[in-house]
Amino acid sequence: MHNVLPTNHIFRNSHPGIAVFLVFCTAIGTALLNFLRQKSTFDFSFEFWIAPISIGIASWLINVILVYRSRYLSSNYLLGWSWWCLLVALTNSPITWREALLSVGASVWLAIAFELFDERKIGLRTRSNLGFFAAFLGILNLNLFSFVIPSLLAPSIEFKLRLRPILQIFIAWLLPVSLFFVFGLSSLDFLFSSMIKSYENIFFDLPSTGELIIFFWAIFAFFQTIRALMSAKKAKRRGLMLSWLGIAYTVLLSIVIHDPISYVSLLAVFFGPHLVNLKDYISPKGLRYLLTPSLLLGALLEVIF
After folding, report:
1. 18 in a structural domain
2. What is the pTM of this model?
3. What is the DSSP string of 60-117?
4. Taking the CB of the first residue and of the last residue of the chain, which one, N or C, has fewer CB atoms within 10 A?
5. Is 281 exposed, middle or buried (0-12, 13-18, 19+ CB in 10 A)?
6. For 189-202, how does the pLDDT look when each residue is reduced to its tens digit (9 = 90+)?
7. Domain span at residue 39?
């Protein structure tokens, strides 16, 4: 364990007071960046004030949800801090409560996916919860109906194809989605037309400064994942692979459906566990102290330029 980041890192501390400090830092940081990014210099609307509060609470809530369910992430507040750093680096627009809501939703989905392999849980119940929640995310945001795809792939992240769990997840997803359309809350025509329009407008945009920085760290994360697959415990191996599944889904979603809020919110959650893992095991050791500062620098550069 000599390679692990020293415990004097402020968010490495598991003291409950650090949770308050995390909420304070992410809320103040969000308010400052939103002020610099907004088009009207003195636009202090209700949404301007609610965004920092919701982001601050989300940073703590996401940390609690994933640390508690992952069975491999340490009980401290690095994950919540890493999520916020990723979030601000991925966008040059003001952050709103919508990013907070979708990120919390994605973290709940990932937490349920973690439990797919927990022998202490009832398998059918966990798979049903995953399917239901994937449907809920689609109802919450129609662009996310495709969340059923990573949900169906989640049981096979160890490269073992098992049809029964996949079928159970699909049925659990299909039931609420069918009710959603049967009772006229939305129309299939609208969904199909949106899908066709999205596929017709597929394009690749140039990555932002923050995306380039994250891609750079993703290279290290990839090789660290390979190392973990050979030597780490099962919970960690599965957790990292589920995160990669979420990352792949989010990147493909951003190409097909141009929804920056969904893209930013999901990618910040799914890459968060990798960033925390790199803080412990990246080599050479000096790079671990550049991880979150580089993301914050990327966010500031996007404001300036």
Report:
1. yes
2. 0.90
3. HHHHHHHHHHHSSS-SSSHHHHHHHHHHHHH-SS---HHHHHHHHHHHHHHHHHHGGG
4. N
5. middle
6. 655 565 555 555 55
7. 10-97+188-304
